[in-house]
Structures
1.
Amino acid sequence: MTMKQCRQLISLLLAFLLLFGGAVLSEEEEEEIEFLPDDEVFLEDTTDYGDVPWNFPVDLQDMDPAMIRLANKYVLLGKDYKPDPIMTMVRRKANKDGSNANGGVNKASTSEMKLQKECGEALVAMFEGALQDGITLYLKSAYRSYQTQNTMYYNRLKNNHGKDDGWVSKPGASDHQTGLGCDIVSKAWRSKAMNAQFAKTKEAEWMKEHAQEYGFILRYPKDKEDLTEINFEPWHYRYVGIPAANYIMNEGICLEEFHEQLQTAIDQFLEDGGNPKLVEPYIQRSAE
């Protein structure tokens, strides 16, 4: 029996009780009947795949297509792409007991920084979790628009004799444009030029061990430069949601590999006769 059929059966049973149960129940007994909202009938819902198996470690219901969205030189975001909803990250203020008074984060500069709302809230939680372990993190860079990335990219080319050295993504290919990419540093690195030495800090080590608990992954790992085509960035973390983050970090893969595996699962699902509407939102297409 499918989840939908189960819901329908329960609805019929509840309707039967309402119609016929009143004749045999006392007023006191009727008051004790608790009717759960439709989305609370089951403790855990599952996607109805019919008779077609879903051969991927992460269930579709545990992945938001917008959160796992890929952005690189092969899968470009459009010029008008902007995360929605988006929130402005405010500077953290502490209560007398040290707790977060305003839902903010430590910031490496006074400049305005924005993130997709779910990502921003998860980042606040991660920063608070780090503080409990004696680690203070600072947000150095967040959402960047296509236009801002375009300016940064061509300034980099101009200052590097026209060579793309892998440090600044071309416009449309930046993880920052998703609103889910964050550059996170320690207090000592707030104004430093970023390089791989940051990986040796206690802050970088803490993030690599705990970020997945909050839905973040190390976006550009050291041993995946041939796949990401971006230099190792131990400060750049990307929000994908907890289920996907746990799988990616536990398996030691990058987001490109995750999508390659996901696409293989989608192809198999469709070949086996699966419903195309279920997987369509998860198929990545480049804006160009």
2.
Amino acid sequence: MSQSLPEKCCDLIEELGLGRREEVRDVTPLTGGVASDIAALRVGDTRYCVKLALPKLKVAADWRAPVHRNAAEYAWLEVAARVVPQSAVRLFGRSEHAHGFVMEFLDGPDVHLWKTAMLEGTRPNGEARAVGDVVGRIHAVSSGDDFDRSAFRNRDDFRALRIEPYLISTAGRHPELEARLHDLADVLYRSDQVLVHGDVSPKNILMRNGGPVILDAECATMGDASFDPSFCLNHLVLKAIHLPGMRAAFLGEIARFWEGYGPHVSWEEPADLEARVCRLLPALMLARIDGKSPVEYLDETRRQQVRALAQPMIVEPVQTLSDLTETLKARLKDLDA
């Protein structure tokens, strides 16, 4: 019989020497993720967060991924702790046997989830620029010749977790875009420019004392630098579509993100990278509607709007984020008319 989540948590705490299993209490499953079991628990007066990789993701589609990805996630968090310690979570150890690790549990009056704030219609307060800065710093450090890439030689995991469920799956539903989406998939699979997080989403970003802490690096790999900015900016776009009253504010944050990220781009011409972001972003927009991981907050009217926006931008991508933002504003105005 498979173990229960509390049993797995007790085993992990004991294996890592953080306490005896009889000292573990208040094991509480946490929601939000689809790729792992996550729980909060207490050992004495200390509250921890436990994360254990799942072989089958908790989505409607049959989406499987190797559990050893948990090692790359932990390694990414270690890199973040070195490069941007003020934006990193404290780590307490990982079990190769259990494919799980323990980190600090972040809560308190000065901690909130970026996604929650956005969906509540809270006006931006520098979050996108700060996230862009953190991602840019990690990309820049990892692009150097002296960066240890050994923990991130896992492009097939990235293909299983991101390329196939987002681009290849979406291409299957849009044969007229198949060649373009497959070409994007090939670019992402071949590249190993920088250390990619792979899930820079507001649902994975806690704001602590006004600064971002980026979690859930299960997709971490050496990859193309365009992926993390595109993935994050896609969420700004989708939430701008979902909340028309916040549209101008959220679309304006696209430029703020690039202000934080762009100055760190040293491994290639920034304009070349920006053009790839503009090419990939509309593909990810469509993927969050017709891929294996659709966003949950858009109704059918908004989903149709995303398709109407994304498809022509995949066929004829713009070259700059400024042009992309203006195109989105103009087309959304027409769609709402």
3.
Amino acid sequence: MESQSDKRIREQDTCFLPDFCSIQVVFSLVLMGELLAVILVLSKPLSPIDSWRNLGMISLFIQWVTLCSAAMFCLIRSKVMHWNNAITASIAFFAMLLVTAFMSEAAFWTLQTIGYDKLLPKMGHSEFLFRNIGVASIVCALILRYFYIQDQWKRQTKAEMESRIQALQSRIRPHFLFNSMNTIANLTRSNPRLAEEVLEDFADLFRASLVQANTLTTLGEEIFISKQYLNIEALRLGERLTMEWSDHKIPNDALLPPLIFQPLLENAIYHGIEPNMEGGTIWMEITHDDGTLSVKITNTLPPGGEKANRKGNQIAMENIKQRMLAVFEGEAKLTYKALNNTYQVVLTFPYVNDFSLC
């Protein structure tokens, strides 16, 4: 069944217009509006004093139109995001022309009323109105075309990223698959009831590994899956595996790609616990500080601080890194290092519980 977060993402992706409530988008529009004002001033041969005066008046007018249009787009975007691109573009186009016409009328009659009509261009009311609407129509068409091309480029990039991630995910060697089956087979004779519980945990793990690359889960669900995996490994390794967990006061509704923690824990067991006949310890600490989540997984290494000559192919690490970067657009970070006979992996990513805000 499609989750609410996945539904919001799918609905948002149907609209090529950006989020005009975003400060970055509004800043870009203001910058483009100011560049348009400079171009309009430079297109007329005027004295320096007249040029500066015209630049101030044209900039003021254009910025009012820009900000009012951005506010209108911010309000109507949620209502047109389900429609096709042609209808959305038409609504945005005529909405901007309506704002331009209204602001032109307001500017013309305000300057006439307060006696500053000399600041108006030397043209009649109708000519002033239609000239502004004509310029606005050309600029709006170019901006909408730019937004459409940018949206198509993002869609193509995202599709290529998801395709590459899916290929990476299909190449992961699931050691826990074979280990879990052996554990279940051994328990079937000695403890059938426990074998049934382990089989249920294994089914949840296997189901999580089959989800699509663009599906999201919550931090709470990811922690639950990770603990199920550790329960299976604890039955197999017995007292050789010691686990210390710290996840107090964390937002369980934080969104992230599924099956992120399990491969990291699997690596810790495969390289740090299994090769050591005396076993070892895994420390997992999840913290939340100022809108950033940090997941730190530390495991002991065999004597000598080596990985018992077990060389990994880094597929799991690459898979996690690429999926996190794709979802959080470069704001996630994955680092790892060996330190004092331990191996530590640190994953940081922003706390987001509603991807319709991204």
4.
Amino acid sequence: MSTTLITGLPRSGTTLACACLNTLPNCVALTEPMSVPLHGDPDQAIAEIAAFASTTRARILREGLAPSMSRAGLMLDNTFEDVSQNGALRRSAAQVADVKITKPLSADFRLFIKHPAFFTALAWPLARHFPVYAIIRHPLAALASWQTVDFNVRNGRMPAAEAYAPALRARLAQIPAPLPRQIALIQWMFQLYRTLPPGHVLHYETLARAPAATLRPLSGSLAPVTHPIRGIDLKTRYPGADFTALAAALLTIEADIEPFYPGFAASLRHLPG
């Protein structure tokens, strides 16, 4: 059965990718539908992921229902609130609930399951059992987004990943301030994504520009993506972010970013605002 796992930097467009995939024929993409087990046993977790995929696929075909982060029964392309006018942190506006799958599906339809932190920590062993794709975004944009959300990454922590990466957990525990912890998280994720097969790391920037072509290796579909994609102005989207300080912090891990974003340091010369 065709089940593909999607991971990526938090706030990098993984939910948007799911929204786009859901507009394609014979594709169902679920956003963080599992209750992430925190026992820390990779083999057991992989078995639980496989069992979840199997039972969810059967339920979709039998009942037309599947769990996913959603709001009012609808899956979203962004699970967080819109930008606050008073500078308040953006909170999650979605929760896991059953959504109705109404499109026609074959018995071997393509199922996509997205979990950024959980699947990143298990990326290498998972890739031996499933196709695994990671979505990344220019780290300055991702890091700016982290400053504006009421979420663990704002404090430089990622519990669902740390449960399966004790070395990461120990490293983060030794770093006293949020921004250096965030940099350590980005470095760790970029290093892990280099272990994925060639072509299995997708860029948000390419997804936003050409969604159907970017997702075709996953979907196998020649159909156009009909989900609308909005342009983002970083200064407006992430008010209050100190882009100069964020850029300086990211330059400390330039060597890990450069393979994915050649000319990374030069790209920072044109900072928002």
